[in-house]
Amino acid sequence: MRRQATPLSTGGTVNDGDPRLRRFFDFLARSGHKATRQRALIVRAFFDAGRHVSAEELYHQIYGQAPGIGLVTVYRTLKLLRDAGLATERRFGESYARFDPSPADRPHNHLICTRCGKIQEFRDRGLPHLQQKVAHGYGFAVNECKLELYGLCRDCARPSRARGHRAGGRRARVDARSRFETPRRAPPLLTEETLEKRARPAGHAKK
Ligand SMILES: [Zn+2]
Ligand SMILES: [Zn+2]
Questions:
Q1: What is the pLDDT of residues 41-78, one digit of tens each?
Q2: Helix pair 71-83, 37-49: axis angle to 10 deg
Q3: If you measure from the C-alpha of residue 176 to the centroid of ligand 2, how many angstroms do you get, rounded to a whole number?
């Protein structure tokens, strides 16, 4: 049976009453950060996208709406979202972090296509049992478990002839990208080390 990897976190328009926005602003107030319009815009764009974006991808996405927002601000805001428990920072074999709109308390696993960069989420009822069995066999106490499967997604694994003539095949790949992740871009505008350095609050500067 062909299984559909269910996207657990789905995108869509985020309205003002969205509880995630309220939780984020509560967190900002509690932690002494300012609730700026830029931060609100970044957070909405992140939840609208509903996928595993890097700071740079989100920056490119919102650049058209708000050219004044810099990459470092996007990165810093994503880190704040993570600190607020509203996003999970993940690494999928890349040199930079991606931010998952599924909170850390919603465990799930990922299928990562190494050709088009698509990342799909899945859960399987049999996995917890298998994990328990393995852990028990080794006398191991598990406190976190994540499963990442790397390979080719259904679109990329399909033989090129089955994808139809060239134009059709190209269209199919573009669709897959727009629904999920954008392809891996190399090299990034700024390395994570530089981003990290610039995102660090300086001395008594306002947060
Ligand atoms: Zn995920
Ligand atoms: Zn693919």
A1: 999 999 999 999 999 999 999 988 888 899 999 999 99
A2: 70
A3: 7
